[in-house]
Automatic annotation (TrEMBL):
Superkingdom of origin: Bacteria
The protein, known as: Beta-aspartyl-peptidase
Database matches in PANTHER family: L-ASPARAGINASE, N(4)-(BETA-N-ACETYLGLUCOSAMINYL)-L-ASPARAGINASE
Segments traversing the membrane: none
Native organism: Pontibacter saemangeumensis
Amino acid sequence: MKDIAIAIHGGAGTITRSSLTPAQEKGYRAALQQAVEAGHRLLQEGKTALQAVELAVVLLEDSPLFNAGRGSVFTKEGKHEMDAAIMCGKTLDAGAVAGVQGVRNPVALARAVMQHSDHVLLSGGGAEEFARNHSIPFAPESYFFDAFRYRQWSDVRDSDGYMLDHTEQPDNKFGTVGAVAVDKDGNVAAATSTGGMTNKRYRRIGDTPIIGAGTYANNKTCAISCTGHGEFFMRAVVAYDVSCLVEYKGYTLQEACDEVVMHKLVQFGGEGGLIAVNGAGELALPFNSEGMYRASKKNSEGTFVGIYKEA
């Protein structure tokens, strides 16, 4: 049996010790540990990487702490528009949704798109219709209401500005959740989910549901899930760029991730991070911001949970 491994993230940005109370830090660490260990248990049971990343992301979506699913931020209109994607490294099958409202777990809808349609990306009302046709659960508006998110929105809703997530600066908050995994058969998978930007307008969509930008998986190379300022990650085609450096340049996983996150993105102002795994069970969790909510677990090793630069 090959090595099994999983990594998750819950967003990146200017996350410093001074920005979190001890109680908040404890809550984040507990939520990250729960999600990564749940995904890891599936891998131990012989389940697929695809099942593991979906479960881990569902648990993060169910937590109000993260900007995805239940914790999604408010749009300019006071609504919640969510994006998600999932990809199988063995088959290169992928499914994604953008701008959906009311869907309890957008990553589950993305999985349904991958498995039950001839399409990769569905958006808005069409994606919601597809969800109803395939019995994907919806939740009432009250389910997505969070007082902290509402206060975030209240600070900027009367302006033309927007906020990302997880920082003290209004223009440096990157809120996304994601997971990557490799199973006992050496197959990799990736999944990502987000609520986007606070006060976003015009049905804005970021990198999360764009295959190759925020999410990518290929058994030949690696699986990637990104978190950061989506516009930069789309322009840099970050997830696929990491894969290409491995496939065509012969970079190690860590070398490829560092080249893209610590050099290419930085050179034109892109901030954030990513998580990556390859078929050999190697993990990489680089970020160029002050912090990134992250966790990982490999084989029978202890669970790693980190928030700040020094972990």
